[in-house]
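Quick one:
INPUT:
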């Protein structure tokens, strides 16, 4: 034994090869926490001090290599400031450089995932061999930072600047074949031959067949690009990446600049450039929020895992109601391996559902994600039916008929009589109370809401709505099914609109106030899109459907009349009255024309502007800041109320539901993060000023006022 720690051990083989093994104690994965990095420094020094070694293998005893740095430490580390972060990164550079400067060849044996800092460890080795199912990548830009432990320096020198920019700016994971194709790894082998291949590479390097020193010179010297090549490579990449990343995500462009600035430098100078740029990005609000988003996502997944333990897995599902929504649910279930019955009372509806599923599978084939054979196999997971004949074997039913309480009540009571006593019934409702739908059920403990978002195959969120009599087992089983479908379930309690729609409609109410006072909806859309929303409120209403919005708005007004009821005719109702329902009939706040791909494209419609002006006494100009405040304050306050009312369990779940459910700008972290970024006191003051003019929708809660006075935070 050369070294023994809590996460790292170093042993010597019979032929004098050191084997450094990552195996973090009491964890299922390896990650590079501050303590592990310190151990790595000690372990490498022990290896370097052993003069009789002939090579070093870096390996993992777990099912993954290293998933990256310990992100739970990031907020605490980043608070220490720029100088600390530069010094920290330079220290890690020195540790990784020790691998690169060993007096013998080195090889990394990559299994499972090698991401972020884990990937950067492997880049410091002379050679890399990868298991067939492994993946490698540098996802740091997705956290608002850039690779700070040598990724921006070594990867371009190893695979070329173009490929490195694609890997780093995109932040994606790359499979073994892709890594081999660009030269990021030297060999790909079956996982049971990984260690054998690593030792073979070292043997060939020691005989001179493979030149480890040439590989080191390549990685530690300047990039081989002349001035014209540099300009063509980097300036072209900046333009393309800026268009993809958008103005709110600076890390991808900054990463390209770091590679460019370091291109003509040796290793140490290039690493210093990288360390400084990392520290600069780490102190931005975008980085803080994206790291918080990652931590929230982990917390939500952990909570879902706890719920799942209370239920059982779903082996056979069913959806009631075909059509677009039912077809989308059937597709998602079938594509992830859970067989599903798709029932409707009409044959043409069944065909519509199957057509939707076939279309979605067809797109997977077009993208090369599935073969025709795989598509055919997965389609067999969907069994269309006009009867309840096989429902006795179903573990969970998703009711997805029209959003009408009488129709849903009739369907649910009918199917309950035909399924087993332990079958879970769920309703894909967006507004109707779960307790109301449970009133006529004989086994209300087996019933809950399962609210999918449209389009089902794209939207990651599923709201699992617990009714007053819903059992823990029912919630757990529904959560388990949602996760098996590849969705992120968040459990909420029953109330009008549940969580996401309850929060969204105050945002629409803010829009209605702006329209009533003479605002220009196109200007409002542009401001909110610049703020970071994927579409402005008028455009979003067109996509949702004006009639759907009016129905939900009425539900909200009935449930919360003090702040969500409205007097007179607002702009949304005005559109419905004039048969302008949005994209579904080609006209709403905008008119819609099909583009070359057959997708609806919005265009300005003067008739819509005339209609809005007809109910306004006098047009009024609002500043961008006023628009943002009037739109965001009611949304954020309703999120606070949902936390205070116990509708959602934590700030993390509330923020992730908004990001996954309605496209809240991820770089802003969610509504609660947005309040905290504004400062609770400043936010309360702004809300009070608006409430004086606009009423209770903008009034802070008493608890929020107290939190602002006492300096309390939602997030620790």
């Amino acid at each position: 034994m050369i070294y023994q720690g809590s996460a790292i051990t170093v042993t010597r083989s019979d032929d004098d090869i050191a084997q450094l093994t990552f195996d973090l104690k009491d964890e299922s994965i390896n990650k590079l926490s501050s303590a592990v990095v310190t151990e790595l420094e000690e372990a490498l020094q022990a290896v370097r001090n052993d003069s009789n070694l002939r090579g070093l293998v870096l390996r993992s005893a777990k099912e993954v290599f290293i998933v990256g740095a310990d992100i739970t430490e990031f907020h605490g580390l980043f608070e220490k400031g720029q100088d600390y972060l530069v010094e920290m990164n330079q220290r890690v550079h020195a540790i990784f450089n020790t691998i690169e400067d060993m007096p013998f060849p080195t090889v990394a044996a990559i299994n499972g995932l090698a991401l972020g800092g884990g990937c950067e460890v492997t880049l410091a080795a002379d050679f890399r061999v990868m298991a067939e199912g492994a993946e490698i990548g540098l996802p740091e830009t997705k956290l608002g930072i850039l690779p700070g432990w040598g990724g921006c320096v070594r990867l371009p020198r190893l695979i070329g600047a173009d490929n490195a920019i694609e890997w780093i700016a995109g932040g994606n994971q790359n499979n073994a074949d892709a890594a081999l194709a660009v030269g990021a790894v030297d060999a790909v082998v079956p996982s049971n031959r990984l260690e054998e291949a690593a030792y073979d590479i070292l043997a060939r390097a020691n005989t001179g067949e493979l030149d480890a020193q040439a590989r080191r010179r390549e990685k530690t010297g300047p990039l081989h690009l002349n001035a014209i090549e540099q300009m063509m490579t980097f300036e072209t990449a900046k333009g393309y990446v800026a268009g993809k990343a958008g103005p709110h995500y600076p890390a991808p462009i900054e990463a390209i600049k770091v590679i460019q600035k370091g291109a003509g430098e040796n290793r140490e100078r290039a690493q210093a450039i990288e360390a400084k740029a990392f520290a600069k990005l780490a102190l931005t609000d975008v980085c803080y929020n994206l790291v918080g988003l990652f931590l929230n996502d982990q917390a939500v997944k952990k909570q879902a895992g706890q719920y799942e333990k209370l239920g059982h897995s779903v082996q056979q599902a069913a959806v009631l109601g075909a059509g677009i929504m039912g077809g989308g649910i059937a597709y998602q279930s079938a594509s992830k391996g859970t067989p599903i019955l798709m029932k409707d009372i009409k044959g043409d509806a069944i065909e519509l559902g199957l057509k939707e599923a076939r279309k979605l599978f067809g797109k997977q084939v077009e993208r090369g994600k599935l073969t025709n054979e795989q598509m055919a196999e997965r389609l067999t997971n969907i069994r269309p039916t006009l009867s309840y004949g096989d429902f006795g074997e179903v573990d969970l039913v998703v009711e997805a008929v029209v959003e009408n309480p009488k129709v849903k009540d009739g369907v649910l009571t009918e199917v309950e009589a035909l399924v087993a006593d332990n079958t879970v019934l769920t309703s894909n409702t967006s507004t109707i109370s779960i307790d109301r739908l449970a009133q006529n059920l004989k086994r209300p403990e087996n019933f809950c809401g399962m609210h999918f978002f449209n389009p089902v195959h794209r939207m990651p969120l599923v709201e699992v709505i617990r009714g007053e009599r819903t059992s823990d087992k029912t919630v757990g089983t529904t959560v388990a099914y949602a996760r098996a479908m590849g969705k992120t379930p968040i459990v909420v309690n029953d109330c009008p609109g549940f969580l996401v729609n309850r929060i969204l409609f105050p945002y629409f109410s803010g829009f209605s106030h702006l329209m009533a006072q003479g605002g220009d909806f196109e200007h409002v859309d542009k401001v909110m899109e610049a703020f970071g929303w994927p579409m402005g409120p008028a455009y979003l209403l067109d996509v949702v459907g004006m009639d759907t919005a009016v129905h939900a708005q009425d539900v909200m007004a009935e449930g919360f009349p003090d702040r969500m009821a409205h007097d007179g005719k607002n702009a949304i109702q005005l559109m419905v009255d004039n048969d302008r329902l949005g994209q579904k009939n080609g006209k709403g706040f905008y008119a819609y024309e099909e583009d070359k791909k057959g997708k609806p494209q919005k265009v300005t419609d003067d008739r819509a502007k005339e209609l809005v002006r007809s109910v306004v006494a006098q047009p009024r100009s609002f500043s961008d800041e006023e628009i943002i405040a009037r739109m965001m304050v009611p949304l954020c306050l309703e999120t606070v109320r949902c936390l205070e009312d116990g509708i959602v369990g934590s700030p993390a779940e509330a923020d992730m539901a908004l990001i996954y459910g309605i496209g809240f700008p991820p770089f802003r972290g969610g509504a609660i993060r947005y309040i905290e970024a504004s400062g609770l006191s400043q936010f309360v003051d702004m809300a009070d000023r608006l409430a004086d003019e606009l009423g209770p929708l903008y009034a802070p809660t008493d608890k929020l006022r107290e939190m602002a006075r006492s300096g309390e935070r939602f997030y620790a």
